[in-house]
Specification:
The protein is α/β, with parallel strands linked by helices. The protein has eleven helices and 13 strands. Helix 7 (199-207) crosses helix 11 (317-330). The structure holds UDP-4-deoxy-4-formamido-beta-L-arabinopyranose. UDP-4-deoxy-4-formamido-beta-L-arabinopyranose binds at residues 84, 86, 124, 126, 176, 178, 197-199, 202, 214-217, 228, 230, 268, 291, 294.
Length: 337
């Protein structure tokens, strides 16, 4: 199929391009490079048959969207383009709603103009909020605590209403848990701008000597070692879930959410120990109080994705840390090397 990938130069997008092309799909990228660099697509072309069409522009811009739709005629869209920093979303709510919600609206209008009927949406497990029960299944109540999480849930609701009202359309809502790791080539990986918000890239930057120590946010949670538990998923497994979702969307109609996680959670200290095994040296840490907005534990029930998408995660914790270390040590300054 011809698949448009918005935000395709990003961390998850770039890994998904490789998996799509490996399955014979034709891919086109729309990215404004607000949180990525064109060098990523050079790396992707070097790791594949190289047939990546790309457009530079903002997913909120009807003119660029119309041009992409007319030129590439996508049969499906994977919508990654969006903002994802939880803390920043609290400081800039209108920007997050404009991009994450407004961008989704603009994209759907453009799809309708050319009759494109399949969309895979990059959602997040943060739509669930404080767990009423664990592991989260897709029936768990949704009560996001951050603007970021609310913007994702609003977009999910728009997609759900669009799919219900528009004949023959399919919207697959992938609720990611915690993406980590890198492609085995170590040519692409996570390259956050500024100071990493997320745990794994911060640990990796400590290991490579770019940061002095990891701050462990809270050791008084109701968890086995007192630190936060998360369901980390290898980015290649996550990318493969999008390929499975494309196949599902092509044979189904309506909107449907899927948890994309492993069902196994690890603590901060588990991750530090696993990374020390991968890099062969100690990771310096310092203790701090809990981070505002954090919850104690998250864990996915991903049985629906297994049953209906035919997808399950295959990479374990050591793959996650070893591939992150291979990427970070080969690219100490990310794509700015
Ligand atoms: C994981 C654990 C922290 C950094 C967020 C978004 C989610 C997704 C992934 C976009 C927690 C602890 C972290 C650090 C630490 N984003 N931690 N020191 O908050 O679970 O999820 O990022 O798609 O939607 O909500 O991920 O990696 O920030 O934190 O101790 O320097 O590591 O307290 O327990 P999080 P995270």
């Amino acid at each position: 199929m011809r698949v448009l990938v918005t935000g395709g130069a990003g961390y998850i997008g770039s890994h998904t391009l490789l998996e799509l092309m490996a399955q014979g799909h034709d891919v086109c990228v729309l990215d404004n490079y607000s949180n990525a660099t064109p060098e990523v697509l050079n790396r992707v072309r070097g790791l594949s048959n190289g047939n990546v069409t790309d457009f530079t522009g903002d997913v909120r811009d009807p003119a660029i969207l119309n041009r992409v739709m007319q030129d590439f005629r996508p049969e499906a869209v994977i919508h990654f383009a969006g903002l994802k920093a939880v803390g920043e979303s609290e400081e800039k709510p209108l920007l997050y709603y404009d991009v994450n919600v407004g961008g989704t609206l603009a994209l759907l209008h453009a799809m309708d103009r050319v009759g494109c009927k399949n969309i895979i949406f990059s959602s997040s497990a943060t739509v669930y909020g404080e767990p009423v029960y664990l592991p989260y299944d897709e029936a768990h109540p949704t009560a996001p605590m951050s603007v970021y999480g609310q913007s994702k849930l609003m977009a999910e609701n728009i997609l759900t209403n669009w799919a219900k009202a528009t004949a023959g359309t399919s919207a697959v809502l992938l609720r990611y848990f915690n993406p980590v790791g890198a492609h085995h080539s170590a040519k692409i990986g996570e390259d956050p701008k500024d100071i990493p918000n997320n745990l794994m890239p911060f640990i990796a930057q400590v290991a490579v000597g770019k940061r002095d120590a990891l701050t462990v946010f809270g050791e008084d949670y109701d968890t086995p070692d007192g630190t936060g538990l998360r369901d980390y998923i290898h980015v290649v497994d996550l990318a493969r879930a999008h390929v499975a979702a494309i196949n599902y969307a092509d044979k189904s109609t309506g909107a449907r959410p899927f948890n994309i996680g492993t069902g196994q959670s690890y603590s901060v200290r588990d991750m530090v120990a696993a990374f020390e095994r991968a890099c062969g040296s100690p990771i310096k840490t310092k203790q701090a109080p809990r981070r505002a907005g954090d919850i104690a534990a998250m864990q996915a029930d991903a049985s629906r994705a297994a049953a209906e998408l035919g997808w399950t995660a295959e990479h374990g914790l050591d793959d996650m840390t070893a591939s992150t270390w291979a990427w970070q040590s080969a690219n100490p300054n990310g794509y700015d090397n």
